[in-house]
Write a sequence for this structure.
């Protein structure tokens, strides 16, 4: 018996619908969030992550309704992120039924906010989402930098040290996305994932680049990730969560058997 | 109508546990309250919570909930969840050392700092995610729950009851620790049943059905 590695489907939400962007070009409608959340729950998802990509505040109320509806019938941990900048933002999401909130841009522009949120609501519900790119030139050793604005804007901040800093401020988990790999289906950035996972004491969720079940396996083993996040391979029915778990279990990775009641 | 009171002392998110209890309730009325008078009239109580134990005990005291609990413990079924299990012990080494409610003789200690595992990787703290619970005794609370079911944990401290007979379930994370404790009609779980999908919902349903009799 041991702690299971977690499989976490990610739902990007825009105006109350699940969407999936392919390399930031086309946004494809992937369905109703409550229905999809229920399906993933039944397939054995270990957690769900909702990322709100809605622009306007008005439409954020729609997200609250979605979170409330999902939390009323899906009883696994629910992380919600997107535009979380203030303590009232955190409180609203937790009140709607989120178990954790994911802080992205504000963790870069105002790291003290992470400390305040962790102090007020507990580290267990504060996830920091880091979007990272390798800024090194070809043939140089990797230099991982934090990017914002969907990977378009460099901050010049070195990623691994920043992850450690945010954890020391109280972040309870790191959601690590490789912007080089996101949307490519070429697998996680293993070196990056491993470096961050070994640098911090809290769990790391690997994200960005999953195209196959073998990618999940490598992220959890070579990458030392505690959990893996994926969107498109699940949304478009390439694989079910159960298939992913069966594959991992058959390769010796501890996963939760969701058929066991 | 049977009533269930969720003790709200301002520590953590009670919406999840209220939602899960309402989901499995047949006709029980689920109420969230910080009022000792209201809570002491309920048929059964839930002591939830996340955060630090020092603050937890301060708040229980400020709201006069510690006195209410001292009076009703043993009188009606009570379920502690996560921080609630820690609050029910005698003493915690968290927050610089804090005396707790004392329903279970024993203490709360921190997981040892991350060390190397056999495969060379480190164990993370908090213990966060799904782990298995081995049932250490037969009890109606385990009805329809498989012997090694998975439950969702998030914690850095664990309880060490003095009396082995109070241990109803254990979990392995570097050490084998008591993840479920039980003494007459008071029981407590280290994990979050409200986030543990069907096994967790079954446990909550069993709690609502339980007559509180000792087995």
């Amino acid at each position: 018996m041991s702690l299971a590695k977690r499989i976490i489907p990610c739902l990007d939400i825009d105006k109350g619908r699940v969407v999936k962007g392919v390399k930031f070009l086309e946004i494809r409608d992937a369905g109703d969030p409550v229905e999809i959340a229920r399906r993933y729950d039944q397939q054995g998802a270990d957690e769900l992550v909702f990322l709100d990509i809605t622009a306007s505040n008005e439409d954020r109320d729609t997200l609250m309704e979605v979170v409330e509806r999902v939390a009323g019938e899906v009883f696994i941990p629910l992380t919600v992120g997107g535009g979380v900048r203030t303590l009232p933002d955190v409180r609203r999401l937790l009140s709607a039924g989120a178990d954790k909130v994911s802080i992205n841009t504000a963790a870069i522009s105002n790291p003290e906010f992470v400390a305040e949120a962790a102090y007020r609501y507990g580290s267990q519900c504060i996830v920091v989402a880091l979007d990272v790119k390798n800024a090194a030139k070809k043939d140089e050793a990797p230099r991982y930098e934090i990017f914002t604005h969907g990977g378009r804007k460099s901050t010049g901040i070195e990623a691994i040290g920043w992850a450690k800093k945010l954890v020391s401020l109280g972040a309870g988990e790191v959601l690590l996305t490789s912007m080089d790999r996101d949307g490519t289906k070429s697998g996680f950035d293993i070196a990056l994932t491993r470096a961050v996972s070994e640098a911090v004491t809290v769990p790391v969720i690997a994200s960005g680049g999953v195209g196959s079940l073998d990618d999940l396996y490598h992220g959890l083993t070579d990458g030392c990730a505690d959990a893996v996040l994926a969107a498109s391979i699940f949304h478009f029915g390439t694989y079910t969560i159960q298939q992913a778990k069966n594959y991992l279990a058959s390769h010796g990775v501890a996963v939760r058997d969701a058929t066991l009641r | 109508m049977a009533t269930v009171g969720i003790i709200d002392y301002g520590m953590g998110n009670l919406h999840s546990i209220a939602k899960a209890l309402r989901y499995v309730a047949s006709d029980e009325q689920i109420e969230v309250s910080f009022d000792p008078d209201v809570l002491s009239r309920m048929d059964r109580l839930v002591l939830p919570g996340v955060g630090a134990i020092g603050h937890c005990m301060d708040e229980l005291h400020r709201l006069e909930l510690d006195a209410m609990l001292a009076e009703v413990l043993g009188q009606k079924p009570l379920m502690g969840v996560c921080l609630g299990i820690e609050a029910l012990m005698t003493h915690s080494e968290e927050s610089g050392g804090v005396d707790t409610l004392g329903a279970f003789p024993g203490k709360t200690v921190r997981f040892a700092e991350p060390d190397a595992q056999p495969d060379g990787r480190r164990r993370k703290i908090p213990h966060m995610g799904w782990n298995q619970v081995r049932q250490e005794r037969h009890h109606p609370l385990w009805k329809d729950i498989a012997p090694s079911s998975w439950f969702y944990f998030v914690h850095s401290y664990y309880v060490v009851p003095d009396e082995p007979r109070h241990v109803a379930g254990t979990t392995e994370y570097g050490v084998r620790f008591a993840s479920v404790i039980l003494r007459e009609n008071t029981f407590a779980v280290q994990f979050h049943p409200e986030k543990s999908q069907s096994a967790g919902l079954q446990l909550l349903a069993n709690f609502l059905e339980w007559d509180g009799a000792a087995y």
